[in-house]
Amino acid sequence: MPSNNNLPTRRDFLAASAAATASSLLPGALSAATSSASPVRSALGGWIEDDHGLPAYHYTGPLRFPSSPVYDKAPMLPDDPYFLLGNYRLTVFTHASGALQLLTGERAWGRMNQPLVNQDPTQQSSSFTGAYQSSVTINGTNHPLTGLDSPAALAANKRFGVGFARYDYALTPSLSITRRISVPPSTRLNEGTSAFLVEVRLCNTGRQPLNLRYEESILARYRPIFAPWNNDAREVSYQAIPPQKTGNALVVHFTPHPRRRMAFPPQGQMSRLEQFPPALFVLLTDTNSQLFSRNDSTGTSAVNPWLGAEWSGALQPAEDRTLAFVIGYTRDPSASSIQSIAEQLQPPSNAPDKIASSFADAWTKVVPAFANEPDPILRREMRWNAAVLEQMANWREYYDETIMPQGTMYDYLWGWTGSMRDQAQHALPFCHFNPAIARSTLRFIMKRTLPDGNILLNDGGFGWSPSGAQQTSDQQLYFFMLLAEYLRVTHDYSVLSESVGYYPLENSGHDTGFAHLRQAFCFFRDRVAVGPHGIPLRWNSDWNDMFGWWPSPHPYNDVFDVSESHMNAAMAIVVLGDLADLLNAQPDAAELTGAMREYRAQLQDAFLRDLSNRPFPRRAWMWFNEPLGEDEMWLEPQGFTLLMPEFPAERKRRLFAELQHRLITGEALGARQVEIPVVRPGTPQGARENGGFWYALYGPLVLGVATFDPPAAENLLRRITFANYARAFPDYWTGQWSAADSIDSSLLKTNGLASAIPWCAHSHAWPLYCWLRLREPERST
Hints:
Elements: E1 41-42, E2 45-49, E3 55-59, E4 70-71, E5 74-75, E6 82-87, E7 90-95, E8 100-104, E9 110-111, E10 132-138, E11 141-144, H1 151-155, E12 157-161, E13 164-171, E14 175-182, E15 195-204, E16 210-219, E17 223-224, E18 236-240, E19 244-246, E20 249-252, E21 254-258, E22 279-284, E23 290-294, E24 306-315, E25 320-330, H2 335-343, H3 360-366, H4 376-392, E26 394-396, E27 401-403, H5 408-412, E28 416-418, H6 420-426, H7 430-433, H8 435-447, E29 458-460, H9 475-490, E30 499-501, E31 510-512, H10 513-528, H11 556-562, E32 564-565, H12 566-583, H13 590-611, E33 620-623, E34 626-628, H14 638-643, H15 649-664, E35 693-694, H16 695-706, H17 710-719, H18 722-728, E36 742-743, H19 762-774
Antiparallel strand pairs: 1-2, 2-3, 3-12, 4-5, 6-7, 7-8, 8-9, 9-17, 10-11, 10-16, 12-13, 13-14, 14-15, 15-25, 16-24, 18-21, 19-20, 20-22, 22-25, 23-24, 26-27, 28-29, 30-31, 32-33, 33-34, 35-36
Helix pairs in contact: 4-19, 6-9, 8-9, 9-12, 12-13, 16-17, 16-19, 17-19
C-alpha cells in the first residue's frame, strides 16, 4: 500500500476619475459565450504571467465600491478586493489595500488578527486594515502603506499570483518600496508551513539622503470563526499573554476563558470550542531589522498587542535596503519549533525584484503545466484553478486528512467545514493531477460516517458535528461519485482494503473502506429508500437545501417522508452504474455489485417510466401526486439524465434543446437553476437555489452534453471561465479571479453578483474537472 504521506507526481468605490453609479454596475447579459482566445482587460485590471510563467492578476481597480447593490443589509461588492494564498497548513487573504488576514483552519477555523472594531460578521473587507498595518516615515513625514484611503495604497502597483502578493510604491520625494508576501506550497500530504515570508526593499532613487523608519505589524487577537447567529461565540473568550521573546522571534500566546463549566472535553476528543489556540509570532530573518511590540492607540493593546518588525536609518542616494521577516502561528511555541518553520521560509539571496513568489520554483512543480491546451487563456485558467485548489486545501487535525473546503461563507465566515457533498465534488479534479488529496478526501468522508452508513453533513470546531433538523438524502451519492472517479483514474483499490475509523473517531470502531462503502450503499437504498413512484426520497435536502425551509401547505415532516427527488434518481443511476462496473473484478465484491445493479435497474425503470415521452424529467414529487417541474424546467436532474448511457442520443438532443431555450438563453454565464423561480419569501427570484447559477449543477450538464455533442460541451465550458465573466461583468471584482458558489441570474438586476463572498472551491473545481474530462484522450500534466 502506498504511503499516504507522499504526493503522487503530478464595498465603497473610489475611482481615479469619478464614482460609478449603481446603474453602471449592471451590465447587460452576454447572449453567448465568446472564444477565450482574445485577452480581456477591465477597469479592475487583467491577467499576466509571473516571472516563472504562472498566472497572476494585475489589479488596477479601486479599493472602495460605494455604489454596490445591497442584499440582506450587506453590499454585494465588498470593499478592498482580496486574493487567497496558502498551503495545507495556512490560509492568508491579501487585500488590495495591502492589509492581510491570517487564518488557521487545521483544528477550528479561527482568525489570528481579528480586528478590534466590531464589524458585520458577514463581511470580509474594510476593517482589516485595522488588524495589519505597514507604514514608512520619510524625513519626519509618515506615509501609511495600508488602508482604504491611503494615497500610497491607492497608487500602488498591485500584483497577485500563485503563492505571492506584491505591492510597489513610489513615494515623495524619492523612495521606491517593494513589499512581497510569499507562501510556499505543500509538497507532502497533511504537511505545510504555517507562516508567510515578508520581503521589503527600500530604494533611494533621488540625489539626497533619506531618513527613514519602516515598520510592518500584525494585531495579535485570536478569535474563532463562528456563524453570526451562533451563540457559542459568547461561551469562551481568548486572552493574549504579553509578548515574549523566543530566540529571534516575538510570540503571543492565547489562553481560553470559558464562561461555564465543562466547556471543553478531555484533550483529543471532538470539541465545538477551541481549547488550544495557536500562538502568533513574528521572526526576523535579516540582520537589518529589529522586532517591536506596542499598545494599540485605543488603550486595549495590553489585551491585544501589535507585533512587528522595523528598520530605521539613513538611505543614501542609489542605496537600497532589503528587510525580511516571517509571520505565522504554531501550537508548539518553542524556539526550536519556530526556527524550524522559519527555515522553510529562507528568502533568496537576491532582492525581491521578481514578480513571483520567493518559492515559485516549488510552485511550478506543484501546479500542472497543462501544456496540451492550445488556447493560452483557457490553459492559464486551468493552471490558475489548480493553483487555487492547492492553496485552499486544508489539513484537518481531528481526522488527520487533507481536504478541499468549500471556502466562501462556510469556512471563512461561519467556521463550518461543509458539506461532505462539497468536499467530494472539489476532490474530483485532484483524481487527475494530485490523487493523494482525492484519496485523503475519501478517507475523510468515511471518517465522517456513522457505522450505519449515515454520512454526517457538516463539521465545525475540532471534529464536532452539530445536531439539527436538516437531514440530507444524497451524501452517499457524492461519495460514490468521487470513489468511482478515483478508481477509474488511478486504479488504486487499496483505499478499499485499508482500515478506516467511523465517527466519532475517539469512541467508535474501524473497518475496511469496502465495509464503509457497503454500509453507505445500504443506507441510501434502505434508509433513504424510495417513495410511491419508485423515485428516491429527498428528505429535506437533495443538493437544494432551500426546499427544507420554504413554507409548504403540507406539514414539514410529511414532505420529508414522501417527497421524491428526480435528481437523486438520475444521479444514482449514473454513479451506481459507474461504481459497479469498476468494482466488478474485485474479490468479494460480487454481492455488492449485484445489489448495486439490481437497485440501479429498479431506479432506472421507475425514472424512465416517470419520464415517459416528456422532453425533460420533472424536478420532484413533493406530495404524493403533486409534481414539481411538470411544465417548467429545473436544472438539477438534467445533467445526470444526459449522462445515462442507456438514454438515447436523440432524446438527449431533444432534452438539451429544451434546456438551451428554457435555462440558457439570455444568460451571461451558464444555465440558471430553474426556468420559473418559486414565489417564496427569503430568496429573490433569480438568486441562489431559486434561479441562480450554480457551478455544482452546471458541471454535470457539461459532461452530459459531451456524451453526444463534444463541441457544444466545449462551448458550455467556456461560458464559466473567468474570461467570460470579465467580458460580461467588467465592473464586478467578485468573479474575475474567483467566485461564490452561486451567482445571480438574468432574472435579477444584480445579474452576475452574489450574496456570498468569493473564494468558493466550486468555481475552480468544476471548470477544471470538466476541462480534464473533455481533454482526457490527449491529457498530459
